[in-house]
Amino acid sequence: MEGLLTINNVWMMICTALVFFMHLGFAFLEIGLTRQKNTINILFKNVFIITMGLLLYGLLGFNLMYPGDFNGYLGFAGFGLSAPLVDGALDLAYSEGYTYWTDFLFQGMFAATAATIVSGAVAERIKINSFMIFVVIYVGLVYPIAGSWKWGGGFLDEMGFYDFAGSTLVHSVGGWGALIAIWLLGARIGKFKDGKIGAFPGHSMPMATAGVIILWLGWFGFNGGSVLSADPGLTSLTLVTTCLAAAAGGVSSFIFSSLLYKNYDITMYLNGILGGLVGITAGADQMSPTDAILIGVIAGVIIVLGVALVDRLRLDDPVGAVAVHLICGIWGTLAVGIFGNLAGVDQFVTQLIGVGCYAAICVVSSFLIFYILKITIGLRVSAKEETEGLDIHEHGMDAYPDFGLNQQ
Amino acid sequence: MEGLLTINNVWMMICTALVFFMHLGFAFLEIGLTRQKNTINILFKNVFIITMGLLLYGLLGFNLMYPGDFNGYLGFAGFGLSAPLVDGALDLAYSEGYTYWTDFLFQGMFAATAATIVSGAVAERIKINSFMIFVVIYVGLVYPIAGSWKWGGGFLDEMGFYDFAGSTLVHSVGGWGALIAIWLLGARIGKFKDGKIGAFPGHSMPMATAGVIILWLGWFGFNGGSVLSADPGLTSLTLVTTCLAAAAGGVSSFIFSSLLYKNYDITMYLNGILGGLVGITAGADQMSPTDAILIGVIAGVIIVLGVALVDRLRLDDPVGAVAVHLICGIWGTLAVGIFGNLAGVDQFVTQLIGVGCYAAICVVSSFLIFYILKITIGLRVSAKEETEGLDIHEHGMDAYPDFGLNQQ
Amino acid sequence: MEGLLTINNVWMMICTALVFFMHLGFAFLEIGLTRQKNTINILFKNVFIITMGLLLYGLLGFNLMYPGDFNGYLGFAGFGLSAPLVDGALDLAYSEGYTYWTDFLFQGMFAATAATIVSGAVAERIKINSFMIFVVIYVGLVYPIAGSWKWGGGFLDEMGFYDFAGSTLVHSVGGWGALIAIWLLGARIGKFKDGKIGAFPGHSMPMATAGVIILWLGWFGFNGGSVLSADPGLTSLTLVTTCLAAAAGGVSSFIFSSLLYKNYDITMYLNGILGGLVGITAGADQMSPTDAILIGVIAGVIIVLGVALVDRLRLDDPVGAVAVHLICGIWGTLAVGIFGNLAGVDQFVTQLIGVGCYAAICVVSSFLIFYILKITIGLRVSAKEETEGLDIHEHGMDAYPDFGLNQQ
């Protein structure tokens, strides 16, 4: 029935728009949590990711991720987009849930997200040229190939691995890249000095908060669209589990961190919300509201411990990307084997195997990319550039050139 | 027909997302109109309201507000969410307009709004612990019980009281709480001194403006979703009346205030828009475009007079919440008896009774909550905290720690 | 089938909301690229445009633009909105794609856009009263009359002129007004001095970036809604071409400007994205992905050259409105004759004629309006006001009265 395709497709297009809007959320969160002097640099990276990411996904990503029949590990359906036609018109029998064009665009919006996660972690010290090269390879090749293993119908899909909307396929793929990157990059100057952990508190809490609210809004599309149709029961359940996990993650992180640190820390609250969102993402369509709340509560605790752990390991992650996207991404993926409709020992083991496979491809590929960049053009800006700010050195401009004291 | 449920449910889910997004609008508006030193505190309150509000609404609010068959005054369908099932699957016959899950989430997003309205009024001086306790009781108990009287099919519904999307049930419920709160709290230090009214102009007009535009956008969902289906005639009429009332409220407030004060005051323009939106909310589906414009024009004038009146009463309302949400909420509720399809003396009297009932429950309950808090843990921060800012004292942090002069 | 109308109408209402949201995008972009001292003035203009614009479009614009049967040049169906009724209820047979109300509101959101484009160009020096008078005439009369020539079924429509979503009807209509305005207004003090071009770099790159991302999001509705139904193939193709052109415009502008100026300039990247969006707008439903990318790439180059050209002509356009909306608007309109389904010499000539007709009406009418304003109440604020800022002089207030050094 064409009417049903029309409804489903409307829902999917809206979800696509919401996932696109997440890029503003990421940008606001990242610049909010970093220093004023590196603001343009971060904005530039984010704009690069969404624009170049879409072009690359059109050129080759989409056909690497969804190669059709393939060996389950690597396939490629050719360069560019080729819409299926019937008598010269778009073949609407492509799917009941969306058209070929919607499929591409929805998946393309996801693709850029993985690189954006890395962007936050490496902020304030990476060379922009090196980062752009990383983005091109990671979004253009690694993300879609890794994605094909599950969403493209590859070997992990055959094995029964479950990842509804990408706790692993998107978030931990970004998170592993972030982890390798900050390990190879080293910490920002002054972050770890004389055994102490320096505070680098960022330049705008309103932007960080706005970023998280926009990301939460975007998750309506990220998870809601991953139903791949407008099925009323499934989409609405997904939105409920998504929102409850976000709420529970925030409250849990707030309570746990305020008990631990005797402080009402807004950034912990915000990262707790994100942790809940990442945690529910792998099984948002398989959980009850109670499951979702439990997953969120645990994610909130994980965030607080995870941020401390990353610091303890002397890894410098300005926005908490590793705790949010990698650790909670793994948590969410494993939670599919513990809570909800799919819970069971077999499923849990399969989830573990999936996590391991993604760890392998992401660690190896990001290490190779970043290591080669490091020994060739270099990963890191000079100490002078870092101290004076990347905005002035890489972009010849301050982010607020006519504000406050700078006012003309 | 399942197709129709699917369409309706898509519309309701989108409206849910838009109402969720209003929380960013409220946050931006409140921090924009208050001082820099209390920014994190306000953001924290807003994040608390949306996260804790959703959890509470799931735990008990939804079942207090929609108890099914009840005595018309107080009913409770039990703790937690219990989706109606048929053969283990969600019963899609629950409603033609939405699924059980969508119903919960849409209403849950509304619930948090009432508390957010109070948040703005008490800004810059309330103890955060006291405010959080108020939120838990007001969102968890008062709002849903009061709501059940009309939307849950209670005695005011039986009597013919009409409140389409909540001029009274949401906005004046928040507004009464705000009024009682600022009366018990007292004014900010320096606001009323030597018979003069001090100017506390806020710290970011761009954020205030962005907040209002986001709130207007959110009202597409707030009113549009209150049709409770995607009925093409009703939803689109509702959007037209909503937008025309907003536009008329803004223009009217701008013209009236510039005649009165010889100044093009952006905050009056913005509050006029909000006044128009609150004013149309009770009858957005019952008005013609001309009615909507008239309701908006009057709301715009009310805003200008209302803000002056609140000042005259020596009540300190940093964001104009009482004028916008309480006074225009009452205006909108009464307007249902004056304009549009339901106009008539009987309806007007019924509307008055409804306004009175909500005044009673809200004034009594907020007074009890705030008064008990005041004589126990206290409502107000110390003069030192207030002067130096709540951000440093309650959150150990400035909202812009690396900005401008603070830059590292 | 009523179900199909319901779906289509849901899509159109969402697109309406997205186009409304573009007004926040425009506001953020404009204030981001201008100086702090003129921020409230710009916000005020934007709020005026959307509120007064909607009222005017309801009063007369809609019936000037869609007069029904008319001579093809000028028609008017009467003041106010008159919904078609059947037995007292809204006639749902009005269209298969939307109701009468949705039609009005979607078109009303478009109408205000043209004036907003002018707002950016004249920023920081125009008298607000003069600007408001211009808006009333341009949105109330010029835009809808010009629009009727094509979208109202007028002579250009009969001739086969094609402008899917308004590269010409919206963007170049605004762009011509901007060009005439900045020519009559003159440059800001200090912009062109001793043969040099002064740098006036704006006060917030985060806001400028957020503005562009919000505008891109809004374009999902601007172009997606211009299908005038939720047709799955056409709407989704339109979103794909829109996003690819935006991405290609940004990347092309980035690469071209960094080769030319040896600098990674974020404002060029952002304007490149906008150029791509404006460029694809005339033919977004007629292009293949490859066509869209090519149109975007060329738009990105045009932006870089266009901004330089405007400077060379000693015209002062603070936000690059002429390059983005006028030059890329013309480019997009002509591109319909070069790429995609309609490509051909005849079509190209028709497109040229259309561009010329719109140039004529817009240049003549904006010249008349601005010239009469100039010789009567004056167009420009005093040198003192301009130097000290329009916020203090026209609005009695700073945009950040309690921020940084201003903090109380």
From TrEMBL, chains A, B, C:
Residues 10-400 form the Ammonium transporter AmtB-like domain. Keywords: Ammonia transport, Membrane, Transmembrane, Transmembrane helix, Transport. It comes from the Bacteria. SUPFAM superfamilies: Ammonium transporter. The keyword Transmembrane helix applies. Pfam families: Ammonium_transp (PF00909). The chain crosses the membrane at residues 6-31, 43-66, 104-123, 130-149, 169-187, 199-222, 234-256, 268-286, 292-310, 322-342, 348-373. It is a multi-pass membrane protein. It is found in: Cell membrane; Membrane. PANTHER family: AMMONIUM TRANSPORTER (PTHR11730), AMMONIUM TRANSPORTER SLL1017-RELATED (PTHR11730:SF62). Belongs to the ammonia transporter channel (TC 1.A.11.2) family. This is Ammonium transporter.
